[in-house]
Amino acid sequence: QKEVEQNSGPLSVPEGAIASLNCTYSDRGSQSFFWYRQYSGKSPELIMSIYSNGDKEDGRFTAQLNKASQYVSLLIRDSQPSDSATYLCAVNIGGNNRLAFGKGNQVVVIP
Amino acid sequence: SQTIHQWPATLVQPVGSPLSLECTVEGTSNPNLYWYRQAAGRGLQLLFYSVGIGQISSEVPQNLSASRPQDRQFILSSKKLLLSDSGFYLCAWTGVLPYEQYFGPGTRLTVT
User: Fold this and answer.
1) Least packed by Cβ within 10 Å: which of A42, B35, B45, B61?
2) CA atoms of A74 and A19, how far apart (whole Å)
3) In angstroms, rounded to a whole number, what is the distance separating the alpha carbons of residues A69 and A63?
């Protein structure tokens, strides 16, 4: 079983709609969870971090964490063309601040 | 504020040639530092991480090596590049907040 899985294929959403991204992880001891946004040809940018069960909102982004189900999600409300990017889920593993990354989900926002 | 630099931005090297990529961090002290590789169409692969000067942990055995000669400097090297070494090399650091990693701009390496 992979440490972090993002199984959905490319996601196309119309402008103004909600984009929903999901991620599962294998280590029940993980305590820190992150979403990164990566534009084509650029490096990943940290957009959300979540440490407790429930929802965390930051602007148009909402991260949701359910440790019992080992599941973390990202919602993008009022999607904009500038949200078109690949979104990477990351989870802490082991010590020394190591993160495991999912392969990412590409989001395309259609004007 | 903290800033992370990587150079060069792009690099084209022949098979068998040596490699040296450099990463420096400004505005923080004693950061954890990381080297990742992102191959085309693949996820981020952790190559090395360092918790202090001279302390290097290797995640994947390969023909790459890393060194940390100064607190805020991290170097990725190879004596002989392989075609499979092509990819996007990213340096990252963590500071005060645990596990929050911030990436540099990256170096795109093409081995021909």
Assistant:
1) B61
2) 8
3) 15
A25's tokens? 């992880």
Q: What gap in Å lies between CA A111 and CA B25, rounded to an integer?
A: 38
Sign of CA dihedral A93, B86, B2, A60: negative
Task: For residue A63, give the amino acid letter.
Answer: A
Most confident among A13-17, B55-59, B91-95 (mean pLDDT) = A13-17
Contact state of A49 with B100 under an 8 Å Cβ cutoff: yes
- Decide if B90 and A42 are in contact by the 8 Å CB cutoff: no
Portion 53-112 of B in contact with A at CB < 8 A: 57, 88, 90, 94, 97-106, 108
| Lowest mean pLDDT across A89-98, B43-52, B61-70 | A89-98
- Cβ distance B100 to A88 less than 8 Å, yes or no, reads no
- Alpha-carbon distances, residue B10 vs B55, B59, B78, B90, B110 (angstroms): 27, 24, 16, 12, 8
